[in-house]
């Protein structure tokens, strides 16, 4: 386990999303790509984990897009993040939507120490590429889930194509995201993701690519092509109990 005395967060990354928090729920804002991929993400999670009635924790929940979508599928959702402003936006939007979600500002490692093995489903999407020690986040997510429970991650592959599409294309040419949203050196190869998951006691069940079609301006999930964005479905084996 990490011996880091300070939380596993990058202050500059937190500040970046704090500054944008008020626009989190605007589908035409900097968060437009998140709004567009959110149905794909929640459908993928629901297909693998059957959310209705499940106790779920959304790690790095931001303004609550995924948290609310899962709650609307019948899950009992907790959302955690280290950004105060996005959490305030998430709480307010949940009140306006009439959705019951518990939000808390806490590092996932601290939450794992407090509530180990308490969740049926753990989600950690679009977060790992924004922290100093992604392996520590994966270990904490594995600790939070019950034996037999599901853990989902999403991130960006680290290769020339991902740099061209996710940074040059998305941030500078098509301006789908603000310039500087991503740091290519923090992108994660599927081999690294798989190794960290297995080291944390998670079994990798599926890995699926998320692709953007610039001609039709649409997103789709595509198996066997994880060259840019990808989702990972994992499980904590029951024999770990």
From TrEMBL:
Pathway: Cofactor biosynthesis; ubiquinone biosynthesis
Tree of life domain: Bacteria
Single GO MF descriptor: polyprenyldihydroxybenzoate methyltransferase activity
Segment forming the signal sequence: none
GO BP of this protein: methylation
Gene: ubiG
Function: O-methyltransferase that catalyzes the 2 O-methylation steps in the ubiquinone biosynthetic pathway.
Catalytic activity, as annotated: a 3-demethylubiquinol + S-adenosyl-L-methionine = a ubiquinol + S-adenosyl-L-homocysteine + H(+); a 3-(all-trans-polyprenyl)benzene-1,2-diol + S-adenosyl-L-methionine = a 2-methoxy-6-(all-trans-polyprenyl)phenol + S-adenosyl-L-homocysteine + H(+)
EC number(s) stated in the UniProt entry for this protein: 2.1.1.222, 2.1.1.64
Binding positions (S-adenosyl-L-methionine): 41, 60, 81, 125
Protein name: Ubiquinone biosynthesis O-methyltransferase
Keywords: Methyltransferase, S-adenosyl-L-methionine, Transferase, Ubiquinone biosynthesis
PANTHER family, sorted: METHYLTRANSFERASE (PTHR43464), UBIQUINONE BIOSYNTHESIS O-METHYLTRANSFERASE, MITOCHONDRIAL (PTHR43464:SF19)
Family: Belongs to the methyltransferase superfamily. UbiG/COQ3 family.
SUPFAM superfamilies linked to this entry: S-adenosyl-L-methionine-dependent methyltransferases
Species for this entry: Parathalassolituus penaei
């Amino acid at each position: 386990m990490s011996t880091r005395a300070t939380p596993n967060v990058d202050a500059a990354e937190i500040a970046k999303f704090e500054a944008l928090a008020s626009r989190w729920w605007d589908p035409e804002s900097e968060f437009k790509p998140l709004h567009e991929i959110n149905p794909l993400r929640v459908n993928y999670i629901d297909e693998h984990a059957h959310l209705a009635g499940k106790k779920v924790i959304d790690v790095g929940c931001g303004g609550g897009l995924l948290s609310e979508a899962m709650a609307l599928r019948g899950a009992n959702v907790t959302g955690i993040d280290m950004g105060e402003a996005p959490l305030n936006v998430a709480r307010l939007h949940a009140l306006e939507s009439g959705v019951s979600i518990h939000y808390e500002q806490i590092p996932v490692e601290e939450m794992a120490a407090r509530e180990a093995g308490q969740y049926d489903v753990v989600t950690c999407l679009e977060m790992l590429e924004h922290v100093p020690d992604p392996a520590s986040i994966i270990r904490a997510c594995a600790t939070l889930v019950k034996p037999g429970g599901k853990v989902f991650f999403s991130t960006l592959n680290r290769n020339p194509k991902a740099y061209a599409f996710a940074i040059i294309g998305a941030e500078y040419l098509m301006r789908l995201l603000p310039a500087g949203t991503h740091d290519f050196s923090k992108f994660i190869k599927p081999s690294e993701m798989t190794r960290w998951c297995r080291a944390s006691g998670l079994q990798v069940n599926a890995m699926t690519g998320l692709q953007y079609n610039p001609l039709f301006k649409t997103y789709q999930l595509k198996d066997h092509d994880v060259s840019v964005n990808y989702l990972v479905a994992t499980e904590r084996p029951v024999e770990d109990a």
